[in-house]
Amino acid sequence: MNKKRRNINVIYICLGIVILIFSISIFLYQRRQSLTFSTEKWINGADTERYRVLDDFTRNYNLIGMSADDVKILLGEYSIRREAFPSDEKRVDYYWGYIIRYDDWEGMEVLLIGLKDDVVVNYGRTYLSEL
Fold first, then answer.
1. Least buried of 24, 45, 66, 82, by fewest C-beta within 10 Å?
2. Residues 38-82 pLDDT 10s
3. Using N-to-C axis directions, what is the helix angle for 47-60 and 2-35, rounded to 10°?
4. Do 123 and 66 touch, CB atoms closer than 8 A?
């Protein structure tokens, strides 16, 4: 009887471990899916959604050399347009900014894209307070 009870306990423990591993796998898969960049998530998502997919975006897309029209297809209409800074006039004609999120300490975070002759020459994350 004692041996039979031990075997049942081992089965329950193994079953519990399998269920736990399965649950963790589903959670991680769903989390990964929600962090994957897509144009739809970027355009339709709230600021928090853009923030969540930005790392995947920067890993999988290189905007350098992309035309302004292609950027609009990929990211939609920009939130902010700014003429070049005097120190950048030789390298950049203007900047487009895409709002990523609002941070309580730093303010509005944006993806800032520098364009020269309607082609991306640089881009990066920055805060409006730093511009």
1. 24
2. 899 898 876 667 888 888 898 899 999 999 999 999 999 999 999
3. 90
4. no
Q: What is the pTM of this model?
A: 0.71
Quick check: helix, strand or coil at residue 122?
strand
Burial degree of 49 (CB within 10 A; 0-12, 13-18, 19+): middle
The domains found in the chain, sorted by start residue, are: 36-130 (3.30.1450)
Neighbour tally for 37: CB within 10 Å:
20
Q: What are phi and psi of 44, to 5 degrees?
A: -90, -15
Identify which of 75, 68, 72 has the alpha carbon closest to the alpha carbon of residue 117: 68
Length of the chain: 131
